[in-house]
Automatic annotation (TrEMBL):
UniProt cross-references to Gene3D superfamilies, sorted A to Z: 3.40.630.30
InterPro entries membership: Acyl_CoA_acyltransferase
Name this polypeptide is given: Acetyltransferase
Lineage, broadest ranks: Bacteria, Bacillati, Actinomycetota, Actinomycetes, Micromonosporales
Superkingdom as given in the UniProt entry: Bacteria
Amino acid sequence: MPDIKIRQADFAEPVVRALLTEVLAELSQRYGGSGDDTPVAAEDFTAPHGAFFVADDGDSLVGCAAGAATAPTPN
């Protein structure tokens, strides 16, 4: 099994966009619809608003994860 490295990535990188297209196609096949109807913008996953990470096996991207800041919830 190859070593998988996690790295921060730019949401707009062509290889990242290709991975996301593949992921959404898989989700669509499994669950119907577009795969994800949640509207997002690249800025949501760019510092200081958030971050986007990919899992890279050296030959291709094999996974991804993202986090975005949210507004505080009032008590």
